[in-house]
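Translate sequence into structure tokens.
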Amino acid sequence: MWISQTYGQLNLDAIPEKLLMFYDRNAVYGEPMELTIGTDSQNHSSGTKIVTVISMICRGHGGIFFYTTEYRELISIVKQKLETETYISLETAKALIDELDNDKYHVLIDNCPLSIHIDAGNAPQGKTRDLIQGLTGWVHAMGYACEVKPDSYSASTIADRISK
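Result follows.
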């Protein structure tokens, strides 16, 4: 089940219609629109809470996002957490593209580049710096563009806030 602050609970197959509505309302601005998927996780006493976000923004004019939450056994190793997050984002991207594979949504595929947002950054003392090359290589090998911190807002901002 996916959740939207605007539309409430919905299934993945309902998201393309909402994205198209957002696109149609904002196309008049002539600004680029981006479709992104990002996942973040936080460890809690009961295990690891994982939040995946599908977001679409129109530069300078706002955006819309949908999220889903799942819980798993505690994932304490940073590399394993980032690999899990990236895997879930890739699986979500494939499922969303399958839903968008319809003539009705061709405008989204043609005009809204899809990228995977990874919650890893290049901070000199950061725990994730050494993992970036492998994770971005994996995402690129799967055929997607990707972003890392500070540009990975779907994972490092939206999903991060919901996962806490």
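Note: Strands lie at 2-4, 8-10, 33-44, 47-58, 62-72, 114-117, 145-147.
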